[in-house]
Amino acid sequence: NGKAVNHVHLPPWANGSAHEFVRIQREALESEYVSEHLHEWVDLIFGYKQRGSEAEKAHNVFYHLTYEGSVDLDSIVDPVQRHAIETQIAHFGQTPSQLLT
User: Fold this and answer.
1) Considering Cα of 69, then 45, then 62, then 89, what sign does the dihedral take?
2) pLDDT in tens, 43-55
3) Cβ-based neighbour number of residue 94 at 10 Å
């Protein structure tokens, strides 16, 4: 919306500098370690470790309303209950669609 973000508390290792924070984060994300383990993150976010027993083993389980298809909003006739569920989804977020199995 174009509104400036300010009053952000940076971690101590950024030494109070947003540029240093970004530099260190970029260095970490571009590291050999991340490149070697990126497929594990993909499995957690989009793959077979997103749901079910593999997700449980990986401690990658979220609130049931965050999963795509977990609730049919059109079937909820009580407007208060529907509003409550929509609010939970809006504020808690949604798990990405599972693209890989």
Assistant:
1) negative
2) 999 999 999 999 9
3) 13
